[in-house]
Amino acid sequence: MNEAEAQAWLRDNFEIGDRQWQKLEQFLEILRQEMAHQNLISKASAEHVWARHVVDSAQLLLYVPEQISSGTWLDLGTGAGFPGIIIAILGGFHVQMVESRARRIAFLQHVVDAIDIGGQATVQGSRLEVMESFPVDVISARAFAPLGKLLSLSHRFSTEKTLWLLPKGKNAVRELQELSPRRRKMFHVEQSVTDAEAGILVGTG
Ligand SMILES: C[S@@+](CC[C@H](N)C(=O)[O-])C[C@H]1O[C@@H](n2cnc3c(N)ncnc32)[C@H](O)[C@@H]1O
Fold this sequence. Notes:
The chain is built from nine helices and seven strands.
């Protein structure tokens, strides 16, 4: 998928208003500028940011059932803003973005303020381990931690209805197989639209 195809894919799959599109572009411009000061995404992927990061994040919304499409979403290790910022712009959720590194926290807060998404997104600037538990509708984590560790750290935010959306790249199936049978049966694997070899673990519980 090239950059033009990525933008076309977004327009085909979501109803994106002018204001939302503007926010996406503003966010990417702030990200590009910040890349001079901190290493937020790889230099190679920066040239394909719509395909490698925006579509890769936005596709998670395709797995959200209608009935929870305006709930609370916890994004673990949001880093450069993926998927948290994209979900906040395109989805109807309130997104809590957890990030522990000070410069990334400042970057995320600047993005939230600059593109005016404070009503849809909050930056939780701390380690996940020290956050108080609260129940959420959706948990996402992209390049955050190996699956077993990820679940151990975050299951206290889940209920039996929580939807898990975990882009796991080429390791999706292997990481799933390493889970205990009880946890394994929570998930199935969906193919990523940005990379046929990459999997997204979609689960409930
Ligand atoms: C590899 S980056 C991925 C960033 C983003 N999700 C993406 O896909 O581009 C992982 C991020 O998780 C953050 N992180 C790692 N462990 C954390 C923890 N225990 N609590 C909060 N944030 C954490 C790191 O600071 C880093 O920004």
